[in-house]
Amino acid sequence: MRVFGIIGYPVGHSLSPAMHNAALRALGLEGVYGAFEVHPEDLPAAVAGIRALGIGGVSVTVPHKETILPYLDELDPVAREIGAVNTVLNLGDRLKGTNTDWLGVKRSLEEAGVELRGRKAVVIGAGGAARAVVYALRRMGAEVAIYNRTPERARRLARELGGRGYPLEEIGEASGELIVQTTSVGLESWESPVPEEIFSRFRVAMDIVYRPLRTRFLSQAEAAGCRVIDGLRMLVHQGAEQFRLFTGREAPVETMYQAALEVLEGGEKGR
Ligand code: NAP
C-alpha cells in the first residue's frame, strides 16, 4: 500500500484527501492519501518522517511552501524559479521538490480556451499564490500587470518573474484579456478587492479563491459579461499533475473535481 498526503498548518479543511483518494479509487490503485497537520517548528521532523516511513510523495501547503526548500535534496528548475514547492516526490534515495500550482493555472485557462500570447493579463495580489499565477501567465506569453495593496511587493514580483507592478489604487485604469484575483479578499466573505466597473474592460475573469465557489469578484465579473473561471479548477489541475507524478498514471480530472466539490458543498451546507 503506497502512502501519500498533504502537509500544512492548518490542514483540516483541505480538499486534497478527497480529491486524491477518489482518483486512487477510480483507477483501482492501492494507496491512501492522508492529511498531516505539521506545526512550523515540526517541519524538519516531518520531512525526516517522509524518508523514514517511505511515504511516496506529499502535497505541501501554507505555511510550508517556502520554508521546506532547505530540507529537500533537489529542486526542479520550475520550483526554483517560482521560489516555492507544492509537491515533494520521494525518489527512494532523495526527496525532490517541484511546483504544480502554475500548471493548475495554465490548464484552467487552456480548457476555457483562453489565448494570452501577446495579450494583457492583470493579476490582483502579490503573495505566495500570485507567484505561480504570474509564472504561468508569463509562460503563456502574456504581458502581465500586477496590482497589489503593498505596491513594493508587486514591483518585486514583477522584477523577479516578469511584468510590471502597480499600487492597487490604480486598478481603475487597468484593462486586458484576463484579470486574475489572487488575494485572500473574498475568502469566506462577500468582498472583492476591485471596483465592479472594471470588469467591462476584460473578457475573462478568474478567481483562485474557491470558498465560496462563486465569489463576489466572479459574480460581478459574470454580470458584466466576462467568461469566469473558479478557483477549484486550479486546485484540481494542480492536484491532477501531482497525482500523475505520484503514480505515473494520468489523473481522472473530473472525478477529482466532483470529489472536491462534494466536500466543499457539504462544508458550505454545514455552516
Ligand atoms: P498570501 O501570501 O498571504 O498573500 C495575500 C495577498 O492578499 C497579498 O497580495 C495581500 O496584499 C493581499 N491582501 C490581503 N488582504 C488584503 C486586503 N484587505 N486588501 C487588499 N489586498 C489584500 O496568501 P496566498 O498564499 O497568496 O493565498 C491567497 C489566496 O489564494 C488564499 O485565499 C488561498 O486560499 C488562495 N489559493 C488558492 C489556490 C488554488 O489552488 N485555487 C492555491 C493557492 C492559494 P499585501 O501584499 O498588501 O499584504
What is the fold-level CATH name, i.e. the topology of the largest domain? Answer: Rossmann fold
- Which radius of gyration do the C-alpha atoms yield? 18 Å
> How many strand segments?
12
Element order, helices and strands?
EHEHEEHEEHEHEHEEEHEHH
Query: What gross morphology would you assign?
Result: globular
Strand order of the largest sheet: 2-1-3-5-6-4
Distance between the termini: 35 Å
The CATH H-level superfamily of the largest domain is Leucine Dehydrogenase, chain A, domain 1
Class derived from helix and strand content: alpha/beta
Cofactors, ions and other ligands in the entry: NADP nicotinamide-adenine-dinucleotide phosphate
Q: Can you name the CATH architecture of the largest domain?
A: 3-Layer(aba) Sandwich
The low-confidence runs, each spanning 5 or more residues with pLDDT under 50, are: none
Output the number of helix runs: 9
Largest sheet: 6 strands, mixed
Average of the residue pLDDT scores: 97
Name of the CATH first level of the largest domain: Alpha Beta
